[in-house]
Specification:
Layout (H helix, E strand, L loop, with lengths): L19 E2 L10 E5 L9 E2 L4 E7 L1 E6 L2 E6 L2 E5 L5 E6 L4 E7 L1 H7 L11 E2 L2 H13 L6 H16 L7 H12 L5 H8 L3 H12 L3 H18 L4 H7 L5 H12 L3 H13 L7
């Protein structure tokens, strides 16, 4: 079953945030989802907790990924790690692009070596592409949400396994910061026995963003999860690894386009559904 972004979404402007935190648009009650790109709508540059695969079946796309750009053609696969910002910058008129994403708890179970996978560097063979297309098409006949989840998790792992691999330092950093967002780059570099500049260089080359930026986003996502679980803003900021609530406020405002208290007081729905005008 596929979800298409529709008319209730609000317009987005660059003044809101450089890169928004926007959860992946799952159907209610689902923990795995696939949808087909719709040319009438485009989400702003964003990041989320869910790992996401973009699979190009026909045509071509230009995708912003961190501070880099990926040119994807038929057969190409692009992976967005949790916290890695991305945006569809341009698309050919015949683009057929499918997106697959998993909730973190499903990804943790189905894609344990996710940190190994590079964001791009994979082109499926014509046979593999046809097989994936058939699997996605068959989902429409499934009415059991658990069956959809199982099929998408299996498909995600299968396609992800064909991607090139990140440098070992990038893999270790992704794993460590995802589990412990309070970790500093210098502490991690010392533990890995390398100079911090070496760790930063490999991470930036593989992810298209700095280690500091990625860590800040992991902390922001942890903060939101903790507040959702019932913690106060101050307590959540401490447990998420921020040195102070003032620091948390700055990072969260950049990630949400508004102050934390406004986000939880009602701005959340508007931000989650924001779309960017087509140009």
């Amino acid at each position: 079953m596929f979800i298409f972004l529709g008319g209730s979404a609000c317009r987005y402007t660059r003044e809101m945030a450089e890169s928004l935190f926007q959860p992946f648009p799952m159907l209610s009650g689902r923990r795995a989802q696939a949808w087909r790109h719709q040319p009438a709508y485009r989400r702003p540059r964003h990041f989320h907790t869910e790992p996401e695969l973009n699979i190009v079946f026909r045509g071509s796309a230009v995708i912003g990924l961190g501070d880099g750009v990926v040119h994807a053609n038929a057969g190409d696969v692009v992976l967005f790690h949790p916290g890695q910002d991305h945006e569809l910058l341009a698309a050919s008129v015949d683009l057929q692009l499918f997106v697959v994403a998993l909730r973190p708890e499903v990804a943790e179970r189905a894609c344990s070596p996710l940190a190994r996978a590079s964001s791009h560097g994979c082109r499926l063979t014509a046979s593999d592409l046809s097989s994936v297309e058939d699997q996605l098409g068959a989902l429409g006949a499934l009415v059991d949400g658990n069956a959809v989840e199982e099929q998408l998790a299996s498909l995600f792992q299968e396609v992800q396994g064909k991607l090139a691999t990140n440098h070992v330092l990038s893999r270790r950093a992704l794993q460590e910061i995802s589990a412990h967002p309070e970790t500093s780059g210098s502490d991690l570099a010392e533990r890995l026995g390398v100079d911090p500049s070496v760790l930063s260089r490999h991470f930036h080359e593989d992810l298209g963003l700095t280690f500091v930026t990625y860590r800040a986003r992991q902390r922001a996502m942890t903060f939101i999860r903790l507040v959702d679980a019932g913690q106060s803003l101050t307590r959540a900021s401490q447990e998420a690894g921020f040195g102070s609530y003032a620091q948390c406020h700055r990072v969260i405002t950049r990630a949400l386009g508004c102050a934390p208290h406004k986000y939880f007081a009602g701005e959340r729905s508007r931000i989650d559904q924001a779309i960017e005008p087509r140009t």
